[in-house]
């Protein structure tokens, strides 16, 4: 607005132009500096993990919604697979009916963990027994998609990032002669997403894969207390959806995203109304502001 | 109606106060939009106190319950998720608004005579905000809550002689624990009300000396001023509308953007997170703290002093700046220093965000070097501002005689 008045009254002197230019240069500097904050810094800590592939989630974004069928399938995977060891303590079995799990199914699933449908989704496995078996108490999954960098993508990456039969075969082939050659290192780095800059560590990793430890390409540090939880056909869907490992993972991550914040759809739908209201209000306030200030300008 | 007001005014002159301090309060007519951020800060403070009050009605400070209680608020309390997201993101937006407010004061010389006391109360508010935000972040009792509290309170142990005992006294035990959480909650509830009181003093000081303006010269009342109402009431309302759009966009569509994922993991004293990082608004100061690592056993104390000094130095800014001109608009050197300072704050923030042992350019440039340089530049701003103004190095451009 200042620019407009300055031009119309012919007061746009070289000085003010210069000043504006100075402003823009400064703003540009600011922008560069803020972009620099996105620059990845590598450190001892940062080298452990790898970039996690982005997934498309139906519930992401402003207008995203949950697919009830996927939620139901995901809940089934959670109950029949994850809950062997993990709890989802902030959700009660009964809440699963919100997206169409039948009362009978809820009852059966609850009983499978020795609970009733009014109980929280606690694993049938005792914490002490879990610690005995895995060395750690498996974390509660209620907030897992919010509690890890990478969010849903990270959890999906973990579930699908374990060493496949082909990965193990590669490790065995490379380590047959006990060392990693330059050519082999490149192959291993691309297939297992290991850091090429640390070739010395690569041999160690491969040795542990051959020894049958739980390798996961997306876990910082790569070796995990949890054995691969999902495999093709691990859970049988009643709606006939294919039950590949990736599909199971996709469904259960969808369910866990819901469990992490069951109010999120309420949040999104209210948000649109709030923002629309604010847009209209602000435009009106601006119009009134122009009108009132017309006397001054 | 007017009869009632007459009755009241005879006993408490409300109308006269409103007239002199609001409806007819003379305000320079040339204030730009950077002047919106003062009233905006008050607006956010009110949002924080209001949402915080309702959150407190559902919250319990208890090392065994707080994490669950926050989830209870998120899941079971009607609009509890909204209250919490407004409050958690409100803290971030509060700092954004206040940082812009402070930088505006620095750019246009609003700290200069006769506004020194006004400026000092502003810094006191800023300092209390930092304490309040820090203690508020501890309340959800997640991993970052716990370890952030542990790291920051531990800094006190650097104080000679009494340090170790002081930390135990603050903790109420031999580590951060339930007593710490309880007292932080009590203080987190109290401090915003104290801040509100100091804000009133800040405004009292403002209304005693009146607003500075972009030109930075004293204004002639009447010719150069307009009544606060309706001109600035409507401008501030419009600004608040724009602010709310940004704020609500984050609250409703990216509510965890400013939050660390680690804080959704319950506090675990037995497991240190790989990378403890404070909230973004503390990062530049955190970087300054860590950049002093070359003084052996004195590093910690020196770092704490440098971090405190980074804020404390603002107190003497009115005396460091000796220029005859307030506004940097007419001060080419000061203006350049100012923008270097702003960029430097971003760089320090970025250094603070990264692990202490990180490096860029494939390890060629350790971030600690960037951090030390940034710290030097930060304090360099204040020193150079004094040098160029005290020794008449800066030649200011012509200042208009009137706005």
Provide the descriptors you would attach to this structure in a database record.
heterodimer, A: 297 residues, mainly alpha, Cytochrome Bc1 Complex, Chain D, domain 2, two-stranded antiparallel sheet, 2 strands, disordered N terminus, B: 403 residues, Cytochrome Bc1 Complex, Chain C, 2 domains
Order of helices and strands of chain A: HHHEHEHHHHHHH
- How are the strands of the biggest sheet of chain B laid out side by side? 1-2
The multimeric state of the shown protein is heterodimer
CATH topology of the largest domain in chain B: Cytochrome Bc1 Complex, Chain C
Q: Could you give a short account of the major beta sheet of chain B?
A: 2 strands, antiparallel
Radius of gyration of chain B: 23 Å
**Count of domains of chain B:** 2
Task: Tell me what the structure shows.
The complex is a heterodimer of chains A (297) and B (403). Chain A is mainly α and 297 residues long. Chain A has 3 domains: 68-162 and 223-262, Cytochrome c-like domain (Cytochrome Bc1 Complex, Chain D, domain 2), CATH 1.10.760; 168-213, no CATH class; 265-297. Chain A is 51% helix and 2% strand. Chain A has 11 helices and 2 strands; from the N terminus they run H-H-H-E-H-E-H-H-H-H-H-H-H. Chain A has a two-stranded antiparallel sheet. Chain A is flat. Chain A starts with a helix and ends with a helix. Mean pLDDT of chain A is 86; it is low at 1-14 and 42-48. Chain B is mainly alpha-helical and 403 residues long. Chain B has 2 domains: 27-274, Cytochrome Bc1 Complex, Chain C (Up-down Bundle), CATH 1.20.810.10; 277-395 and 399-403, no CATH class. Chain B contains 14 helices and 4 strands. In chain B, a hairpin with a 4-residue loop joins strand 3 (359-360) and strand 4. The longest helix of chain B is centred in the middle third of the chain and has 32 residues, at 178-209. Chain B is globular, with a radius of gyration of 23 Å. The two termini of chain B are 40 Å apart. The model of chain B has no long low-confidence stretch (mean pLDDT 96). The chains are: A mainly alpha (297), B mainly alpha (403).
């Amino acid at each position: 607005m200042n620019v407009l008045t300055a031009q119309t009254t012919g007061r746009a002197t070289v000085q003010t132009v210069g000043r504006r230019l100075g402003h823009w240069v400064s703003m540009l500097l600011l922008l560069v500096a803020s972009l620099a904050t996105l620059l990845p810094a590598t450190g001892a800590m940062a080298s452990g993990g790898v970039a996690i592939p982005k997934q498309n989630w139906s519930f992401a974004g402003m207008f995203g919604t949950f697919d009830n069928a996927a939620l139901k399938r995901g809940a089934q995977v959670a109950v029949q697979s994850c809950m062997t060891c993990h709890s989802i303590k902030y959700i009660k079995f009964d809440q699963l009916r919100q997206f169409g799990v039948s009362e009978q199914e809820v009852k059966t699933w609850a009983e499978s963990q020795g609970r009733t449908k009014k109980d929280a989704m606690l694993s049938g496995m005792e914490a002490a027994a879990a610690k005995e078996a895995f060395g750690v108490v498996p974390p509660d999954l209620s907030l897992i998609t919010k509690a890890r960098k990478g969010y849903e993508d990270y959890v999906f990456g973990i579930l699908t990032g374990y060493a496949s039969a082909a990965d193990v075969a590669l490790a065995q082939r490379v380590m047959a002669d006990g060392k990693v050659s330059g050519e082999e290192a490149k192959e291993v780095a691309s297939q297992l997403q290991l850091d090429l800059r640390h070739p010395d560590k690569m041999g160690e990793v491969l040795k542990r894969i051959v020894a049958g430890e739980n390798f996961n390409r997306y876990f910082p540090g790569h070796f995990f207390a949890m054995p691969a939880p999902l495999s093709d056909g691990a859970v049988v869907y009643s709606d006939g959806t294919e039950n590949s490992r990736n599909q199971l993972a996709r469904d259960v991550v969808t369910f866990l995203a819901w469990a992490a914040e069951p109010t999120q759809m309420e949040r999104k739908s209210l948000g649109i109304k709030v923002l629309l209201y604010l847009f209209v209000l602000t435009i009106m306030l601006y119009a009134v502001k122009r009108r009132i200030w017309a006397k001054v300008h | 109606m007017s009869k009632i007001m007459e009755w009241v005014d005879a006993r408490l002159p409300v109308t006269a106060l409103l007239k002199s301090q609001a409806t007819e309060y003379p305000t320079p007519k040339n204030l730009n939009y950077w002047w919106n951020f003062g009233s905006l800060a008050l607006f956010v403070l009110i949002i924080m106190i209001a949402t915080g009050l309702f959150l407190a009605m559902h919250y319990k400070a208890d090392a065994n319950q707080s994490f669950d209680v926050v989830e209870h608020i998120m899941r079971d309390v009607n609009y509890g998720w909204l209250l919490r997201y407004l409050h958690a993101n409100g803290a971030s937006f509060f700092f954004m608004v206040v940082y812009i407010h402070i930088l505006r004061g620095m750019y246009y010389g609003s700290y200069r005579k006769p506004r020194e006391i006004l400026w000092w109360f502003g810094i006191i508010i800023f300092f209390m905000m930092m304490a309040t935000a820090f203690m508020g972040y501890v309340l959800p009792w997640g991993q970052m809550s716990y370890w952030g509290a542990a790291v920051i309170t531990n800094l006190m142990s650097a104080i000679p002689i009494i340090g170790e005992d002081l930390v135990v006294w603050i903790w109420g035990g031999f580590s951060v624990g339930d007593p710490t959480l309880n007292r932080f909650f009590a203080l987190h509830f109290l401090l915003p009300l104290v801040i509100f009181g100091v804000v009133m003093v800040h405004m009292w000081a403002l209304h005693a000396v009146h607003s500075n303006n972009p030109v930075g010269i004293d204004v002639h009342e009447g010719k150069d001023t307009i009544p606060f109402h309706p001109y600035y009431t409507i401008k501030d309302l419009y600004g608040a509308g724009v602010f709310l759009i940004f704020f609500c966009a984050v609250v409703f569509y990216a509510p965890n953007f400013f939050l660390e994922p680690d804080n959704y993991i319950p506090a675990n004293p037995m497991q240190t997170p790989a990378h403890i990082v404070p909230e973004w608004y503390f990062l530049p100061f955190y970087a300054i703290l860590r950049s002093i690592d070359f003084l052996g056993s004195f590093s910690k104390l020196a770092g704490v002093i440098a971090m405190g000094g980074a804020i404390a130095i603002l107190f003497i800014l009115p005396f460091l700046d000796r220029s005859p001109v307030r506004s940097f608009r007419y001060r080419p050197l000061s203006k350049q220093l100012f923008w270097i300072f702003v960029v430097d704050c971003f760089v320090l923030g970025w250094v603070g965000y990264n692990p202490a042992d990180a490096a860029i350019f494939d390890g060629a440039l350790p971030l600690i070097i960037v951090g030390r340089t940034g710290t030097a530049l930060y304090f360099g701003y204040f020193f150079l501002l004094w040098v160029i103004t005290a020794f008449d190095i800066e030649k200011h451009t012509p200042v208009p005689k009137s706005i």
